């Protein structure tokens, strides 16, 4: 028997299947979709078995060394999807397969030296004086030359150990080996008698830690009983449950208004007819889209099918997870980055074993190994987080549509501010449009949105709050209502500049300024993670006239504490939510009204529902509007509309104040009117005029190198190749330097390719990728580019 294996080497040159001989002892247990250990050159690597066959044209095959899985981790559908994704994204098959499994299951490689015979060199002898196996990393650098000689003389061998990054969690139980025990054998060993007596009262094995805690006995007591053969220890696999400490009372379906009922009926009609239609559920903020999702999913699982529910990573709040857990209890697995590696692994295994029927998660949950999917729902479908920015550069919506075709089930895309591409498809009838135009809570209305013209209000650059916003906050504090303030920039100050020579303190690795974080007195780079303590003197002229400029969430928090000393503040940004569970704790604390004002970056604008928030303020609303990105206007409109939707979601009336220097811009005017249709019309005019999606498709080619001259040479080669190969069928823009031209010591340039129909494009670009596989210049492709910074 022959196994076709994709090996864990992320190089285009080996992006193919290799034949391996299946040893006799594995023939009855090996299956397609399992992971195996195979020899590849001088090392051992992990691989995925793609298929099994009886013959091969190759004469000499190496055998599979070890079987990692008993049950396949990739089913037939996911294997086919991985190979298709490899072609569609220009990634290797192994990158696509690894994207489908938890990080805990990705192989961890460790080099070791095995002593075969008595080494000649004394230093090598001392290395192996107490063991035959030594970690290669522990070999002193001064000995590497001697190690090389020992390898050549076959005195030692270099071997590769391969393991999962994480194992299963095992819990120890204890039980009696025989139901009847002769107590006379214990003499005066009272603790041993106590344990035996306790275990004889229980029919089932008892958790070891519980027994030790309740009886106050030590490991030594239990070990003695095990050695005597009276007690046995049993290891049982246990899931790591991230929600073990939470109790979710069972919730019932809420009554639907007419628009919600139409939406549910339309989607369920597609479920029943096994149609893979794509629905765009365009519902204003607070219109009850989540209840529509819940009732659709309830019907799907009652049919015996399964459901995938995707939410943007930033919007995967405890509120959403809580609503699903309350409605469906233990039929839900939740997958997101706030979980530990072990928790994620165990939640995924529940899906693999078909122990749950619903997966709620971020982007990668689209690969959930379900066998009979009845519906796929993608909430806040406009969010950029559904696009993977590292290889494989897939878009979750495109993967969802692929899986929906296989399972013959509908896809529901929901948003208050759909992407222009999705709404244009709905207008053309490619997607089926469903609309929710009213808020779900009968007494709730859309908040009043007002613009504050900072050109009139500002008194120098230091003004953070306009008088209008200050008064509005004071009023809410008097009424004991809550306030949400958005500033999409973390840290204390954006940059540190010398007032003598004008020097800005930049990151040594990237072409960006360092951001000041006051809490730990450090300057940080938000691109590569470099940090340093606050400087006292200018690095250019040694002057001590260094001053802070710009505004961040930390500075706003400090300023508001001075302005409203009796108010309780809370800040939500990457700095305050980096620890596990901190995001959840902050939201629950704000829900319990432990703070009056919540200040945060864009994460406060997504998926939050607080009944007492009646004021939303936006500081520096123009931050994203004037970026060199054709989606800047769309993203600004989406963020402002979404954050405005946090106000007045229940009985209390809401108000939104947006501080801007561009009050006449059509984005700001459409936000005030909360008119998506008007924004869509205006933005589509711009997209048509300049030839951007949805009128054109885009692809990008990004090059980076530590050597700037090598990068320029490579760009010339790519430029010539693209223009010769693609001719007039595409618009080729570039080479262009991104907004940040250097990140982590690597200079960057990119090409943007606009096209309507070019069947040869993928082949041309993949050929380019193969050419740049080796060398000092890295090249990457993106067929769904979202970020150009």
Describe this structure in words.
By secondary structure, the chain is of the alpha/beta class. It folds into six domains: 2-106, 3-Layer(aba) Sandwich (GIY-YIG endonuclease); 109-164, no CATH class; 170-237, Ribosomal Protein L30, Chain: A; 258-436, P-loop containing nucleotide triphosphate hydrolases (Rossmann fold, 3-Layer(aba) Sandwich); 448-493 and 550-687, Rossmann fold (3-Layer(aba) Sandwich), CATH 3.40.50; 697-782, Alpha-Beta Plaits, CATH 3.30.70.600. The protein is 30% helix and 23% strand. The protein is built from 22 helices and 34 strands. The strands form eight sheets. Strands 14-15-13-16-17-12-18 form a seven-stranded parallel beta sheet, sandwiched between helices. Strands 19-29-28-20-27-26 form a six-stranded parallel beta sheet, with helices on both faces. The protein has a five-stranded antiparallel beta sheet with strand order 2-1-4-3-5. Strand 16 (373-379), helix 12 and strand 17 form a beta-alpha-beta unit. It is globular and about 85 Å long. The relative contact order is 0.08.
Structural key phrases:
about 25% strand; 6 domains; GIY-YIG endonuclease; alpha/beta; 22 helices; 7-stranded parallel sheet; 6-stranded parallel sheet; EC 5.6.2.4; Ribosomal Protein L30, Chain: A
């Amino acid at each position: 028997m022959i196994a076709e294996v994709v090996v864990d080497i992320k190089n285009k040159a080996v992006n193919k299947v290799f034949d391996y001989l299946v040893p006799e002892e594995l023939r009855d247990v090996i299956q397609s979709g399992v992971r195996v250990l195979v020899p590849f050159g001088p090392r051992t690597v992990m691989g995925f078995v793609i298929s099994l066959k009886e013959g091969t044209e190759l004469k000499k095959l190496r055998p599979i060394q070890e079987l990692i899985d008993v049950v396949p981790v990739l089913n037939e559908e996911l294997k086919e999807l991985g190979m298709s994704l490899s072609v569609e994204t220009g990634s290797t098959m192994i990158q696509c397969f690894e994207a489908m499994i938890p990080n805990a299951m990705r192989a961890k490689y460790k080099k070791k030296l095995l002593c075969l015979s008595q080494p000649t060199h004394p230093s090598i002898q001392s290395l192996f004086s107490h063991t035959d196996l030594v970690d290669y990393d522990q070999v002193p650098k001064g000995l590497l030359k001697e190690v090389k000689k020992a390898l050549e003389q076959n005195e030692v061998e270099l071997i590769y150990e391969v393991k999962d990054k994480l194992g299963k969690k095992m819990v120890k139980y204890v039980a009696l080996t025989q139901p009847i025990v002769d107590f006379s054998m214990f003499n005066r060993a009272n603790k041993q008698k106590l344990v035996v007596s306790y275990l004889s009262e229980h029919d089932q094995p008892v958790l070891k830690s519980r027994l030790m805690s309740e009886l106050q006995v030590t490991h030594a007591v239990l070990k003695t009983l095990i050695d005597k053969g009276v007690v046995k220890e049993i290891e049982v696999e246990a899931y790591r449950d991230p929600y073990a400490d939470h109790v979710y009372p069972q919730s019932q379906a809420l009554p639907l208004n007419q628009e919600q009922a139409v939406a549910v009926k339309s989607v369920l009609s597609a479920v029943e007819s096994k149609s893979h239609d794509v629905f765009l559920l365009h519902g204003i903020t607070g219109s009850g889209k989540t209840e529509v999702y819940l009732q659709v999913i309830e019907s799907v699982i009652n049919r015996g099918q399964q459901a995938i529910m995707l939410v943007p990573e930033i919007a995967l709040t405890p509120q959403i997870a809580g609503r699903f857990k309350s409605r469906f209890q233990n039929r839900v697995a939740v997958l997101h980055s706030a979980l530990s590696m072990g928790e994620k692994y165990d939640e995924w295994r529940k899906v693999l074993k078909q122990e749950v029927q619903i997966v709620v998660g971020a982007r990668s949950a689209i690969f959930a190994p379900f066998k009979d999917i009845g519906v796929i729902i993608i909430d806040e479908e406009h969010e950029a987080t559904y696009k993977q920015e590292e290889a494989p550069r897939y878009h979750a919506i495109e993967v969802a549509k692929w899986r929906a075709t296989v399972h013959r089930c509908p896809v529901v895309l929901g948003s208050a501010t759909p992407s222009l591409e999705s709404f244009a498809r709905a207008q053309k009838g490619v997607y089926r449009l469903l609309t929710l135009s009213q808020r779900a809570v009968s007494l709730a209305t859309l908040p009043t949105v007002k613009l504050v013209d900072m050109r009139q209000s500002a008194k120098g650059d230091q003004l953070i709050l306009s008088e209008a916003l200050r008064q509005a906050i004071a009023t809410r504090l008097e009424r004991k209502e809550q306030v949400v303030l958005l500033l999409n920039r973390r840290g204390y100050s954006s940059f540190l500049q010398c007032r003598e020579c004008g020097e800005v303190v930049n990151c040594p690795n990237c072409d960006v300024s360092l951001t000041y974080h006051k809490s730990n007195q450090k300057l940080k780079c938000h691109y590569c993670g470099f940090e340093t303590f606050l400087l006292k003197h200018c690095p250019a002229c040694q002057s001590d006239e260094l001053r802070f400029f710009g505004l961040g969430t930390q500075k706003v928090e400090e300023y508001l504490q001075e302005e409203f000393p009796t108010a309780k503040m809370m800040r939500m940004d990457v700095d305050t939510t980096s620890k596990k569970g901190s995001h959840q704790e902050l939201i629950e604390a704000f829900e319990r009204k432990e703070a009056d004002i919540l200040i945060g970056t864009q994460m406060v604008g997504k998926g939050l529902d607080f009944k007492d928030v009646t004021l939303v303020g936006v500081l520096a609303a123009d931050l994203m509007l004037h970026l060199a990105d054709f989606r800047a206007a769309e993203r600004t409109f989406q963020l402002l509309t979404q954050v405005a939707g946090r106000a007045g979601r229940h009985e209390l009336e809401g108000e939104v104040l947006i501080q801007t220097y561009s009050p006449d811009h059509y984005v700001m005017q459409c936000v005030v009117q909360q008119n998506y249709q008007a924004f869509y019309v205006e933005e589509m005019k711009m997209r048509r005029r300049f030839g951007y999606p949805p009128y054109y498709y885009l692809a990008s080619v990004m090059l980076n190198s530590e050597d700037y001259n090598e990068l320029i040479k490579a760009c010339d080669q790519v430029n010539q190749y693209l223009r010769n190969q693609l001719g007039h069928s595409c618009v080729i823009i570039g080479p262009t330097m991104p907004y940040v031209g250097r990140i982590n010591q690597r200079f960057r340039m990119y090409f943007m390719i606009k096209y309507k129909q070019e069947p040869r494009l993928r082949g041309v670009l993949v050929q380019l990728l193969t050419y740049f596989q080796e060398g000092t210049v890295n090249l990457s492709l993106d067929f769904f580019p979202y970020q150009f910074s």
